[in-house]
Design goal:
The chain has 419 residues and is mostly helical. 49% of the residues lie in helices and 12% in strands. It contains 16 helices and twelve strands. The strands form six sheets. It has a two-stranded antiparallel sheet. A two-stranded antiparallel sheet has the order 3-4. Strands 5-8 form a two-stranded antiparallel sheet. The radius of gyration is 29 Å and the shape is globular. It starts with a helix and ends with a helix.
Amino acid sequence: MCTESLCAEIVALCADIHRAEYRLLALIEELDASKPWRHEAMPSCAHWLNAYCGLDLVTAREKVRIAHALPRLPLIRECFRSGELSYSKVRAITRVAGWDNEAELVEMARANTAAHVARNVASMRQAERLSESKAAFHSYRHRTFACRTDDDGTLVFEGRLPADQGALLIQALDRAMDWLMRSGHQRDDAQHEALPQTVRRADALAILAERFLSEPPEADAGLNTADRFQVTVHASAEALQEHSLVDAYDPPQIEDGAVLATETLRRIACDSAIVRILETGDGEPLDIGRKTRVIPPSIRRALKRRDRGCRFPNCTNTRFVDGHHITHWADGGATRLDNLVLLCRHHHRLLHEGMYYIVKDGAHFIFCRGDGEEIPAGRETPIAALIERAKSRLAVAPARDHPVSRLSQSSAFTAPITT
């Protein structure tokens, strides 16, 4: 048999299998409606399929789900019945299909491979979940990392990270794997390539820990946020607007990664590098601008000098802080010192999730909870303001007339400089 005939026969056979799968699901839907499996003391149709058809419970439950979805999706049902759509594609699109988007999903399934369909549907489901109130904050609150020592002495761990933190971890591991391969730490490149990716990532994680312990970052390394990581996020201008919803067809998304909530997107965009791309309605780039920093280095230095760390009341964090636009630049806010404030990662995230907001009153920042109640300011005035206030007091009250006061004023003036 020639190759062309072989390929044609395989394609035709797969179409027959698709039609048979449709017939099977139609029968499953009918079986579940009549519920004869109850007479055998089985809890569900899926358990009956597991007992008599050799399907595992996960597969059986999925077939029951699709069987009940098809009657309300006539276009998908017809394409499946004719063998035009495979079971894999139908399984994916029935997760998000409704009367209003069924035709679009069928066109997408026709034009893409099953793998691309599954990926697109996964992005749509993420976008739907992230459109719910506080969804991004929910993923942040449930971040976790746990580890234990196994009986053989190996370290076993598992964890869960929000999408943006997860992207940073994968980026760091990929870079460490590349460094391991290029630096000759394996006996030869061929052997390294042959190792499973899980093994290579385990080696990369150990290298990350070793390098951090041998060369820890400087105390203010976290302030240079615009260039600290090279993780790319694609988003439309509309997605950056305040109170915008996640567009299931064009969601803000980490490159080759997870969909982001709009609150997460606005937080990241507060202090990052931006490349503006002008596109047609079909997504074709017309013009690509230069990469620019949202907060220029000169303003960042002044911001660091003024705030000296997170300005949230009672927060003493001076490392790993972000510059936050009080009025977001996507909403027309200017990148000026009077529209910027330093916040640590934790409080920056809480702000964008709506837990509190900031009001600027002259030189003072007022922090209010979501219900409008002001958060008590338990933190001292910024150091730069203390210095100016001390200078003014010294000019008004000469030190020689008040020796006790001179000691107090001198301490207030010099302590911030030496710490």
